[in-house]
Amino acid sequence: MRWIALLFPSLALDVFARALPPQHAAAPLVVHEEGRTPRVIAADAAAREAGVRDGMPLSAALALAPGATQQPRDVAAEEDALARLATFALAFTPAVSLADGAIVAEIRGSLRLFGGEAKLVAGLVDGVRERGFAPRVALAPTPLAALALARAGAEAAPDAPGGLARALAPLPLAAFDVEPATIATLEAAGVRTFGDAERLPRAGLARRFGRALVDTLDRAAGRVPDPREPFVPPPQFASRLELPACVHDVEALAFAVHRLVQELAAWLLARGLGVTALTLALAHERALVRHLGSPCTHARFALATPSRTPAHLTHVMRERLARLALPAPVAGLALATEAVAPLAGRNLGLLPGSEADAPEVPLLDRLRARLGEDAVRLVLPRADHRPERAMRAPLPEACASAWPSAPAGDAPRPLWLLARPQPLRGLTAAQPWVLREGPERIESGWWDGHDVRRDYFVAESPAGEVAWIYRDHRHGTDDGEWFLHGVFA
After folding, report:
1. What is the largest CA-CA distance in the chain?
2. In a domain, 95, yes or no
3. Same domain as 215, residue 91
4. What is the pLDDT of residue 155?
5. Which of 28, 77, 22 is nearest to 289 (CA)?
6. Predicted local distance difference test score (pLDDT) of residue 396
7. pLDDT tens across 409-419, in order?
8. Contact of 213 with 205, CB cutoff 8 Å
9. Domain tally, the chain
10. What is the model's pLDDT at position 408?
């Protein structure tokens, strides 16, 4: 087996800093613990250049960097971020598990699919960095060994015989999740590293410190199995992103929106779904970011067909946000799905160039984003012979006075139907209508109380218009009333 560990030592800082592009000239950012005397637990490069260090009082840090943005640590956001990163890692291997501030994944079974270990690791790490996180990476034959190597700053343990033991020997015991009291007792006896503990008699080690220490050594060395609970993406997607500083312009939100879209696309891919409707909430007060209560601005997005392409989703959301007026500065964002549908993966082609994607942003979605959802409607046919019921989603009367007609094989159909058939009174010899085609009998609906018995004709009116008319035979008579139902262009 081959395990990769991605450790995130700056996770407390990354959950805030990733909302802005790296080249953005922002104030220094300091993350602190909450309490009576808050202390710094993370600081970005600008703050460190000013002299801010981890563990110093927040008051001292602000004295060194007076214009620094301060944020209390958000443990819930860190846990959510790890879950989003684990969801992204599922695109590379199905064996992904969460650890303390890290992700471990078994990649041996996916190496051929990605062209070898180097390409798989590069793709995974690059994707994590594109999402705004700085991982420390290590590889080893066991998950605990990979975690220990990452915590100690090492890179990999070779697969050669004895390579794992040599790589783990110099590592401190603290890197293996050993209890602090056990570490202190062993250090007092001169045992400070994994190799030192491995040289001790195992029976005596178990009697003095319990079986847990021996099991830890065996799991790291691969002598016993180290089962890990597999990560399963949540059934619904909802992600939030707090901004380091309030944003006054919609355009400045584009980068943060893209971060959320990347997480959404990874979740959709992991679950084999496509999104058809989603909501973006913009919180206007920092105290409300975590709860997304009022006052918030909500923007809803609907797609014509299920999609999970990041470029498609980002473009639609940017088009919609461009028409949005912010009533107040934005302190945070949250993206959630409203409706999803199954979406199969795309098959690769055999010929060069045949794997090119379809247009990433369909015209219908672009029009909806620019003009609004009420301005563009999607009408689909339904299996019903009655023309007025042959649409799944007819246009409401408030938007139009006619319905589009449904195709019926080779039978002639007008482009538009009237919202309601109009009686043709006075259809006499004085004003003759010329019947060009027909009749076409439509008799259906007896099961739902809306029975129709009609003979349709393509006819020319006295004014020269080509229309679709029918004679109603519901009452069993051959001389039923005539109605106008549609007009040909």
Report:
1. 118
2. yes
3. yes
4. 79
5. 77
6. 41
7. 567 888 778 88
8. yes
9. 3
10. 54
* 87 and 215 fall within a common domain: yes
Residues of the chain whose pLDDT is less than 50?
Answer: 288, 356, 358-359, 394-402
Query: Residue 400 has what pLDDT?
Result: 39
The answer to whether residues 207 and 242 belong to one domain is: no
Tokens read off for 452: 């129709």
pLDDT on residue 352: 57
Q: Is 347 helix (H, G, I), strand (E, B) or coil?
A: coil
- For residue 143, the enclosing domain spans 3-27+73-221
Q: What is the pLDDT of residue 52?
A: 95
C-alpha closest to that of 6 among 99, 117, 73: 99
Q: Which residues of 202-211 are buried (b: 16+ CB within 10 A; e: fewer)?
A: eeebeeebee
259 and 198: one domain?
A: no
The answer to whether residue 357 sits within a structural domain is: no
Among 224, 231, 232, 230, smallest CA distance to 142 is for 224
> Could you tell me if residue 262 is inside a domain?
yes
- Tokens 């679950």 belong to residue: 271
Among 159, 189, 221, the domain-final residue is 221
The tokens describing 84, both together, are 């989003």
Tell me the C-alpha to C-alpha distance, in Å, between residue 385 and each of 360, 437, 482. 35, 19, 19
Instruction: Looking at the structure, tell me whether residues 144 and 214 fall in a common domain.
Output: yes
Handedness of CA 204, 205, 211, 216 (dihedral sign): negative
Kindly write down the DSSP assignment for every residue of 127-150, as one continuous string: HHHHTT---EEEEESSHHHHHHHH
Specify whether 116 is located in the same domain as 210: yes
**CA distance linking residue 16 with residue 19, whole number of Å:** 6
Helix (H, G, I), strand (E, B) or coil at 113: helix
CATH code, domain carrying 211: 3.30.70
- Is residue 445 a part of any domain in this protein? yes
The pLDDT score that the predictor gives to residue 401 is 42
